[in-house]
Write a structure and sequence with these properties.
about 500 residues; mainly alpha; two-stranded antiparallel sheet; two-stranded antiparallel ribbon; 17 helices
């Protein structure tokens, strides 16, 4: 029966392929073949799909879906190749779970409930926004799907990872991707423009790239601080050194601001926290002496921009137009939020706000902002709990770096929409999945530890032989006694 089904499936595939070849262009046919190959590879082995997804996060081109209304500023919804790859890999994962029902779909974690609450708040607010005419259906639906794809990354990691070797391979691939984009960023520096991630299109996103480098660099620093392997530590330090120049030349003030608390949190979680935090504080105070001139100019530009309309003045300080616009958007969001306090305007139903918290407040109301803060607090609490439970140096350093990077992203989100940016959120939710699943991960002991705890072979000494003595006094033998099977008589 199975052979018949297999033959029928091959015939159906052949007919479908022939029909597509006759009707579509070669380019579309090639795209379809690649999609089938990726789907099949991810179905056969989930690891392959996740590796493809990791490298596509920062190394895939973007394109627009056309003009849309709402908070996209009329630019259209930005889609990237990894969005389509994630759809393919996610569908293959769902299909694999449907065929192999024993795998389970959503493993229970401390974040399942916060994620559910936040997504429900977004769906409800957007649904009411569509019915009220505040949200364009196409735009709102695409943004909701983009939010959902981050959580699909999380659940794929949680449901699939089961041992430490898998985690380390994924982390190495994430760091390798960061190294590639950091090198590409360094090559952009001589051009004089603000550095952004590769394949960003005509308009780069330096704030996004700065947030990505901040988060990934903190994770790498945490692992380097705890790992025992010197070669691996040196490679991580090389990665961090390569990430520093493009981070500075993003000229992202939100990233600069987020770097300070992230670095302090990382120092506070080390063993010699007082010494480390003190040294870091001194280094930050002395940083104006060795920071690149363009970084100092960018920071000072916040206060010394020539006078222009729209600037906000606080006392004797005059803020630049960009910072003033952000502060004004906060004020307007708090003012307009009261018109729809419970569910907000719906996702993309309000004017564009380049700051995460006021955007969530206006789009999803009190229900959404409460669910969003609940989700962030749950992530932070889970990380601290895993840090207390973990003894392995690699995972301990990973959690330390993740926690510091997470604090940095929260601060970063005051100046940009950090938690909806795909190039930050996909790596972020990858690491959240790793942290969540740590209690179920089998950690392989190192060779040194295995050798130390291996029991020594036990050799039992043979019992000492009794020396054979000459029979000087033969024993008394009675009648009927035997020697060598022969009976003896008394005479």
């Amino acid at each position: 029966m199975r052979s018949i089904v297999f033959v029928l499936a091959l015939v159906a595939i052949a007919l479908l392929t022939g029909g597509m070849v006759a009707q579509v262009t070669p380019a579309k046919m090639l795209v379809a073949i690649c999609a089938v190959v990726i789907f099949t590879a991810a179905f056969i082995k989930v690891d392959w799909g996740l590796y493809i997804l990791i490298f596509s996060m920062l190394l895939s081109p973007e394109f627009l879906t056309g003009e849309t209304a709402g908070s996209s500023l009329g630019r259209g919804v930005t889609l990237r190749l990894e969005d389509l790859l994630l759809v393919l890999i996610g569908l293959s994962w769902f299909a694999r779970n449907a065929v192999m029902k024993e795998l389970g779909l959503f493993l229970k974690t401390p974040l399942n409930r916060p994620i559910l609450f936040y997504m429900l708040a977004c769906v409800l607010s957007t649904g009411f926004g569509v019915m009220a005419g505040r949200v364009e259906l196409k735009t709102g639906l695409l943004f909701l799907l983009k939010y959902l794809e981050y959580f699909i990354v999380f659940f794929m990691m949680v449901n699939h990872v089961r041992n430490g070797a898998q985690v380390k391979r994924f982390v190495v691939c994430l760091f390798l991707t960061a190294f590639i984009v950091a090198v590409v960023g360094m090559f952009q520096i001589p051009g004089g423009e603000r550095v952004s991630a590769p394949f960003e299109g005509d308009i780069g996103e330096p704030n996004t790239f700065g947030g990505y480098l901040l988060f990934t660099g903190m994770v790498a620093a945490g692992v380097a601080a705890k790992i025992k392997n010197r070669r691996a530590m040196h490679l991580l330090l090389l990665l961090i050194v390569c990430m520093v120049p493009p981070f500075f030349f993003t000229q992202s003030r939100s990233s600069y601001l987020a770097f300070v608390p992230a670095l302090m949190v990382l120092g506070f979680m080390t063993e010699r926290r007082l010494i480390i935090v003190g040294l870091l504080s001194v280094g930050l105070l002395l940083s104006p002496l060795f920071l690149p001139g363009i970084v100092k100019q960018r920071i000072l530009y916040t206060f010394n921009q020539p006078e222009e309309p729209g600037q906000i003045t606080i006392g004797e300080l005059r803020l630049d137009t960009s910072t003033s616009a952000r502060l004004q958007s906060w004020q307007e969001a708090v003012r307009d939020f009261t018109k729809h306090p419970l569910l907000g305007y719906g996702v993309t139903g309000y004017a564009f706000i380049d700051a995460q918290f006021p955007r969530v407040l206006t789009e999803t109301g009190l229900l959404g902002i409460s669910a969003f803060i609940y989700l962030l607090v749950s992530v932070f609490r889970m990380a601290l709990q895993r840090l207390r439970e973990t003894e392995d140096p690699f995972f301990k350093g990973l959690i330390m770096g993740f926690t510091a990077g997470f604090v940095g992203l929260v601060v970063h989100s005051f100046g940009t929409n950090t938690f909806i940016l795909v190039r930050i959120m996909e790596p972020f939710w990858f690491f959240v999945g790793i942290v969540a699943v740590l209690p179920m991960i089998r950690v392989e002991p190192s060779a040194l530890v295995e050798k130390a705890v291996r029991p020594l072979p036990v050799r039992f000494a043979s019992p000492p032989r009794t020396p054979s003595l000459p029979l000087i006094f033969p024993p008394r033998l009675g009648k009927g006694s035997r020697i060598d099977g022969r009976a003896l008589s008394r005479d």
